[in-house]
Amino acid sequence: MRVWLPAIRAGSGSDVYVERLAALLKSAGVQPLVQWFPRHFELWPSLLSGIRAPEDVDVVHASSWHAFALARKHIPLVATFYHCVRGRGYPLWKSWLQSVYHDHWIGGFEERSLSKASAVVAISESTAREVGAEFGIHGIDVIDAWLDSTLFVPAERRRAGAPRVLIVGNRSRRKGWDLLPAFRECLDRRIELHVVAGLRATAKDGAYLDGRGIQFWSGLAEAELASLYQASDVVVSLSRYEGFGYTALEAMACAKPVVAFDVPGLRDVVVNGTTGMLLPCEDVGGVAAACHELIESPAIAQKMGEAGHARASRRFGAALAREKYLALYARVMSRAHGIE
């Protein structure tokens, strides 16, 4: 089977998803054909309609933002929703201009993708519910994001030194970067705060945090990122909205307790009181207090970390995702060939 994975390089979790999907399919004997396009195609995805598909492609699998432009005759199309941006987020984590862009521009593209897709995938239950309600559709396949269980693993031994809190994510209001100074103020000064910028990291990100008592990291390979998770005592997410809590899952796989806001995407991954703690959105003081509690009670933190690791392995393992994608592709291929 040959699966074409055309994607727009966005410098976000969607890039990570495509790369991990390609590796997942390759491990199953499927030939993934990843083709990256510059980000300006996000504004005018219709230009992708002129791109020639690779030879002998069995399935086209693309983001809901531009899948419609990559539909090809007689080849089944799978469209993935990473999150639902239409009709939500303003003014909490997006500007008025972003809201207009998502509601009227991207939303229109997604409507067109839905009309052409043989199947629609959401990467979490929350995303499936929101997309279903927003676009009035049913039958969305939920295939949760997953992890490489050989890379994100628990540390062999506990790190000595000052307690450490880790935050990972691109600089944006949605990811809660504007809350970092207040969170640092609420956090005990004896606790180190490390922040890893995402794929869109720039020198300005480091400058924004300079002098605030925050250790800034960027440009890390996945193995380096996994090491930072392993060296942390608590992993925090200040994100106001997620399609899927990738950072939380990576932390749980490394047996670290997670403290986050109780918002879509994160509540799909973190079990409050079992694998971590979920606080009301914007409650940075509550997040800091939860970090203090876990650092002062290492037995509780360890128990949550172990529960998180078990959940990551059982609920979000690569084997389960691989099985679901192979079944999905087989289904759409059968329908395309008139076989039910």
Describe this structure in words.
This protein has 340 residues and is of the alpha/beta class. The protein has 2 domains: 2-146 and 317-336, Glycogen Phosphorylase B (Rossmann fold, 3-Layer(aba) Sandwich), CATH 3.40.50.2000; 164-315, Glycogen Phosphorylase B (Rossmann fold, 3-Layer(aba) Sandwich), CATH 3.40.50. The chain is built from 11 helices and 12 strands. It has helices at 13-27, 96-116, 125-135, 180-186, 203-209, 222-230, 246-253, 266-269, 284-296, 298-315, 318-336; strands spanning 2-8, 31-37, 59-63, 77-81, 119-122, 141-142, 164-168, 192-196, 215-217, 234-237, 258-261, 276-279. It has a 6-stranded parallel β-sheet, sandwiched between helices. Strands 9-8-7-10-11-12 form a 6-stranded parallel β-sheet, with helices on both faces. Strand 5 (119-122), helix 3 (125-135) and strand 6 (141-142) form a beta-alpha-beta unit. It starts with a strand and ends with a helix. The mean pLDDT is 96. It comes from Mizugakiibacter sediminis. Residues 159-309 form the Glycosyl transferase family domain. Residues 37-143 form the Glycosyltransferase subfamily 4-like N-terminal domain. This is Glycosyl transferase family 1. InterPro entries: Glyco_trans_1, Glyco_trans_4-like_N.
